[in-house]
Structure formats: C-alpha cells, structure tokens
Write the structure tokens for this entry.
Amino acid sequence: MHEQLQWILLILGNMALISIAVAAFTRWTRGETGAAVSMVLGAVPIAGVVFFPDALTGLLHDFVGTFLGPNDADTATPSPPQPKHDPDPAAVNIPWGTIASGAGLLLTLAAVVALLHLLHRHHQRRAKDQLRRTELETRHDQVLNDYAAFVTDILAVLDRPALADITVAETVRLIHALDAARDARTNPGADYRTAVTELEIAWKAADRHARKQGTDLLPAPERRAVKQARLLLTTALDEDGNSHERQLAYRRAMRLIEDIIDVPKEAVAELANTTRLSLPPHESPQTVTLTKTKDHR
C-alpha cells in the first residue's frame, strides 16, 4: 500500500507540475511576470512531494492505518528478532538517495528560473524591436506627410519650383530615397533604418535647396510671371472673395504658369477640389493643362 500511495502521488504531482508550468508560461507571454513567478513558487511544495515522496506517503500510510486498522501484512506473525551488530565506527552512512533527490529538485528549479529568464529576455527584445519599428515608421510617415503637403499646395510649388523639378540633383536624390524607403518598409530583409535615415537627409537637403533657390533659376520674365501668378492664385483660392474676381484671377494665373514650371498632379487635383464648388463647370481646373512636358536627356 505504501508503494501504491507513492505512485499515485507521483502521477498527481507530475500532472500538477505540468499544468502549473503551462499556466505560468501563458501568463509570462502575456506580460504578467508577477503571476508567473507566483505560480512557479507555488509549485515548489508539489515538487517536494514528487521528489521526496517517502515522508508524505509514510504519513498517509499511518493515517490510513489509524482509521482502517492494520492490514494483513501488519498482522502477520512478526519475524524473530535479528541479532544486533555493533556498527562499525569507521563506516559513514551517507543518505545518497536524499542527496540525489535534493539535487534533482534544485536542478529543476534552476532550469525553470533559467527558462523564465530567457523568455523574459526574448519578450523584452521583441518589445524593443517593435518600439524601434514604430519609431522608424513614424519618422518615415513624417517625411511623407511633409512631402505630400508640398506637392498638394500649388502656392508652395510656385515658391519652391526646384523641389518639383526632376532635373535638380537634390530632387532626384529625394525621389530615389522615397522609393527605397517604401520598398524597405515592406521587405523584411531590407535595412529599413538606413533607408529612413537617408530619406530624412534627402528631404531636408532638397527642401533646403529649393527654399534657397526660390525662383532664382528662372529667367527674369518667368520669375515675374510666377510672382504674378502666385498673387492671382491667392485671390482665386480666397473663398470669401468675389466669385467673378476669383474666376478671372484663376484663368489669368493658369495662362501665366502653364508653360513655365511643372506642377505636380497632386497640386492640380487639390486645386480642383478647392475651387470646383465656386467655379462654373466650364472653368474647372481640370480643363486646364498645368504640367509642362519636358524632354530630359
């Protein structure tokens, strides 16, 4: 009966340890570190039962014997007493079984602690990687938003035409950096950090160059025409202005700039959306060609 109790406790103890290990691992993956550690500590008594079953089974055996009475083995005729031998003083009785069980318990606990530590490090590393990725995407989106604000603002294009001119070296570098960052964002094997950094540098350089140049690269007559067109477009985009004056300013501005600079299609679309409600259908910006075709060789 003593051995049967040991087997029952061993099976139940292992099942409990496995259940606790699975639950602790689940809590750990959810970031509930305190709950996971509490479960591991709570498993220590159960592990003690599994690795040191003799003490508990002995108590259970005595408890069962007290209430159920002695079994057949206990009522059997006792064997005659054996002669006592004096122990050898030089011999040392080392409890190797107890030492081995204790060492096994310590090794198991050490392995559990090491596993939890590795899982914690892995979780921290993944969290840091995700944070860095989010930061990179935020930086990338900031450049995209700044560039979109430029290409959809026809007045900004008139102020910084070099930023829309693909014959300018700084603008060419920006276009290439935009493509590279877009590809790196969707390609897991690409160096997204480097692509975003190069995009930020290219955007700042192109924008700074365009602001510095302004319309100085244009011939004097074209500079005067762009300046006049900008004033006219300001009037055309004024929603509080007179409808007839706005229509007249719009037509004159388009005639001035359509053969001077390339206007991004996004700026044309934005201008159409802004003025469509106030201009007659036959005067819609969609009926006017804003972008000049250049032969780049």
User: Anything to note?
Assistant: Residues 282-297 have pLDDT under 50 and may be disordered.
